[in-house]
Amino acid sequence: MSILAVVGAGPLGAAITHQASGMSIARRIVLIDDAADVARGLALDIRQAGPINGSSTAVEGTGDTGAVVGAGVVVVADRHGQGEWTGDEGLALVTRLRTLNPHALIICAGSAQAGMVETFVHEKDGDRRRIVGSAPEALRSALTALTCLESGAAPADVSLAAIGRPPKDMFVPWEGAAIGGSRGADVLPAVVIARLDRQLPYLWPPGPLALAGAAVRVARGVMGRAPGWVNVFLVPPVTDDRQVRGVAVPAVVDEGALRVVWPVLAPRDRVRLESALAG
Questions:
Q1: What domain count does the chain have?
Q2: At 224, is the pLDDT very low, low, confident or very high (cuts 50, 70, 90)?
């Protein structure tokens, strides 16, 4: 196990720290916020709950951004009393984090941080495999729950991805989805699939607990605690010279970074993906 750094002691950052501590995905978790006393107080509260949760993770709070040095994963969340890191301030933060820790995967956990990921890759020449947004994983979880209600399947028996740019330009490649070992398009009637597709934009933005769970799931995968794929927002590589936009796609862990795994796409879905990439 390694070190997990969470930047921001707002409700989202606190939820991420609490969930990650309870699941023991890291040896040590550092919660960082300019409001250092708040970060230290939250860390103490979570640490005191450790014996109840059966967690042995060391949790500490600080106001020093330099504490990200040595972390295997850095999660950018929300500041105490100020909301998610976004815009120019968020970009400056991510740039500083990358300077301090060139090798960590940076996970932007907020629902409004997709632009920060995209801008960092395009304008700061950031490694597109080492900065992602985790909110699409929370969206996929919500859609999975709705699919379970429609199909009667258990969540573990449903495998689907949400692709595109949230909230409006998202779609599910039902040809590549699986429900109970069968193709999703064969299990669900066309009218049900159409209804789920219409509901997709209204599932955005996910709530703080879902966003926290998504960030922790991505972090677990990178830290080797949960093999499999996750739905993340990133700027995918292309074979030509185009500067593509970021999209939500399924990805797997590859040497501490995330690599896109393209699902089976019907011709209509390929057109929708190209439209999302081109903007």
A1: 1
A2: confident
